[in-house]
Amino acid sequence: MDWNVELSTLQAIGLLVDYSIKIFAIGFVPEGRRPSSSTAWLLAILLVPFVGLPLFLLMGSPYINRRRHRLQAQAREMIDDVQKDIPDHPSCTLPSEVESVIRLNRRLTGFPAVEGKNEGLHTDYAQIIQAIARAVDQAQDYVYIEIYIQSWDEDTEPFYRALERARQRGVKVKLLLDQIGSLKYPGYFGLGRRLSGIGVDWRLTMPLQLHKFRFRRPDLRNHRKLVVIDGKRGFLGSMNMISRRYNTSTRMWVDYMVELSGPIVTSLEVLFAVDWYLESDEVLDFEHPQPLPQFTPSANYLQLIPSGPGYKAEPNLRMYNSLIHHAKKHLVMVSPYFVPDESMLEAVTTACYRGVTVELFVSEKADQFMVGHAQSSYYQTLLEAGVKIWLFPAPFVLHSKFLLADPDGSEPMSMFGSSNMDMRSFGLNYESTLLVAEGNLIAELNQLANNYQVVCHELTLDEWSQRGPFRRYIDNVMRLTSALQ
């Protein structure tokens, strides 16, 4: 009899806890969250509350980020005066729609549009590393590196040896790499010692430091990829500093980096300075301030779009959507991971219905199982709307990321950088992207897309309709998990 009483008591307690979790979730999970994300989290918590709630508290709660948000705000206040006197854009005549997009980003991020000279769109993997190494060899004062994944291997040896030579000349070298992003690759646990051994001042971005009683969400990443040299030369694009095969036996990554000079490099330096302060509490001096921009026809007209959890208004997503709506005739999207939220999916399909030719370039076989299936769950809707989907052939992984709106039109615009077109990049990753409103970079990125198309296979609606029910099921399940933010 006593056992029955105890069992009944335990059942009652379990039921009470179960309903308490569900009532809590319904009232708190949707706050400040997009509908798809709220639905996914609520489904996880309501179906398996004793698993879903801990996961939400670990990866879904916004309160864990408060310290980082506060420090980022402090860092911005310390260095905001670097560009505060620069107008929204150089003194030139721009279409009103282009000006509107620039004003949007200035309000969301604080960065103005400035000049930048295109010193080269580098697309060969080995030559990218060599180009960065050559620029480092020209450094006289400092080199700043912020690259998501780094691995000192046979392919990246020229880059790290260039850093070593720079230190031997007395050049300051500061380096940021993401702990979780780099952790799984060979040599990670000895990388810090090797960097310290050549005199590099390095830090991990957003490290897990439980031994210091400092916790962060383990699903956040600093995904940025940029290099700044003496405040005069910069690199920004899609490539990580790792072997092209990423420790695989068959796959090879396809990437690019853009080499830049001019006032835009100061914007990259400001972004690095904020991130360096977050990890080191050190405020960097700007020893080479750029002059106020004077736009010339031969220059590229560029604006930095930083994004991440510290930016509550999601500037990355808003800028992508703005350019999608801007397209009148032709829209080109290149991304290894295309997992749009509701607003981007609507913008893309609406562009098709407006008569815009929309092309999406993705890998034939994604390098990540969950993201690959989540991505393909959108193909039916995209194909039915009229999107042309180009599949880059395996074993290559198309890792390039850029968007072109009317590249051959009278008002072309583009975005390129580290950001994928997925919900992780819009809400969880710290990204570095550049808006291009004028200049030859748009034509060069358009030519790069044309080069990709030559080797791609076009996925048709008839072909996609032949997929089996098991594939459909897996795609839809993975689509649900992509919204858990």
Give a written overview of the molecule.
The protein is α/β, with parallel strands linked by helices. The chain folds into three domains: 2-62, no CATH class; 113-292, Endonuclease, Chain A (2-Layer Sandwich), CATH 3.30.870; 315-481, Endonuclease Chain A (Endonuclease, Chain A). It contains 18 helices and 20 strands. It has helices at residues 2-28, 35-47, 49-60, 66-79, 96-109, 125-137, 157-168, 179-183, 188-197, 264-280, 315-326, 342-353, 369-376, 379-385, 423-427, 441-455, 461-464, 469-481; strands at 113-122, 142-147, 172-178, 201-205, 221-222, 225-229, 233-237, 252-254, 257-261, 300-307, 330-334, 338-339, 357-363, 388-392, 396-398, 402-405, 413-417, 421-422, 429-438, 457-459. The strands form three sheets. It has a 16-stranded mixed β-sheet that branches. It has a two-stranded parallel sheet with strand order 8-15. A hairpin with a 7-residue loop joins strand 16 (402-405) and strand 17. Helix 4 crosses helix 10 (264-280). The mean pLDDT is 87. One of its GO terms (molecular function) is cardiolipin synthase activity. Pfam families: PLDc_2, PLDc_N. Keywords: Cell membrane, Membrane, Transmembrane, Transmembrane helix. It is a multi-pass membrane protein.
